[in-house]
């Protein structure tokens, strides 16, 4: 049996797909291919559950559909809810296609699974529901553990490359969505506290996070700023070796959980009810009671209220307290 999983969302979403991939591989015992956003091909490098990774730059819908058609898949499963994804899978000629009922062009799927947000319901559980239509024909073995393949030699090479010799904590101040980014000066204040308790602050992020990371570095001259300097694999290695990760509601949270690193997640315009809270050892810090929260599922480019209260009023003391509790210090 040859199976395709289609997940071209952001890095964090791809990491959270690992339990679904493992469940499919163990249960269907066939060949499993994975379509990912171009640039994220190395996320599952060496992962036992994936036989082939297909990058897609979200251009050339018909080219990709024709490429997939040649593979002659028996089944396609799509955690991605875009109109584009539904159309590509339909055009690929795969006879059975499982997706969410709230996906764009959901009528193009042969099996539709209910997509919902509810208190305490994690995205991992939501993704695993995509196996439900298969339970009539297969003995489905559910795997719930997040996993990122990472070799010991990768970790050692990364620490050597960036000359990291001491105990450290990771600060991840960036976000694709500006309103999800906690204030850089607040991150810097948390970093100064980390230094006091013997942890070197290491700032991480993609190239697009440069402005946030640079602002944190300005207020934290004793930190190591690796923003835009690491490969994906090095990014994972840095997170794996940290004592704690402190991050906005973004991909580093999910990488930390997959790598068993304690994490403090800072929420502003989004809320834990969406299902992206730490799936592992972690703490949530948020400002409850604001009528404007959540403003959307992703946050946004600008605060609709104009005051950015959800982040400005969330003071560093709250994050420091949560970190203390997590580290027992």
Question: In words, what does this structure look like?
Answer:
With 329 residues, the chain is α/β, with parallel strands linked by helices. Strand 4, helix 4 (83-91) and strand 5 form a beta-alpha-beta unit. The model has no long low-confidence stretch (mean pLDDT 96). The chain has two domains: 2-134, 3-Layer(aba) Sandwich (Rossmann fold), CATH 3.40.50.2000; 152-327, Glycogen Phosphorylase B (Rossmann fold, 3-Layer(aba) Sandwich), CATH 3.40.50.2000. Helices cover 33% and strands 16% of the residues. Strands 3-2-1-4-5-6 form a six-stranded parallel sheet. The protein has helices spanning 11-16, 18-28, 61-71, 83-91, 123-128, 152-161, 184-196, 210-218, 232-240, 251-258, 309-312, 316-327; strands at residues 2-7, 31-37, 52-56, 75-77, 96-100, 111-113, 168-172, 200-203, 224-225, 245-248, 263-266, 282-285. Helix 6 (152-161) crosses helix 9 (232-240).
In angstroms, what separates the terminal alpha carbons?
51 Å
Described by strand count, sense and barrel closure, the largest sheet is:
6 strands, parallel
CATH class of the largest domain: Alpha Beta
Total DSSP E strands:
12
> What is the strand arrangement across the widest sheet?
3-2-1-4-5-6
Say which CATH homologous superfamily of the largest domain is assigned: Glycogen Phosphorylase B
| Computed CA radius of gyration, to the nearest angstrom | 20 Å
What general outline do the C-alpha atoms trace?
A: globular
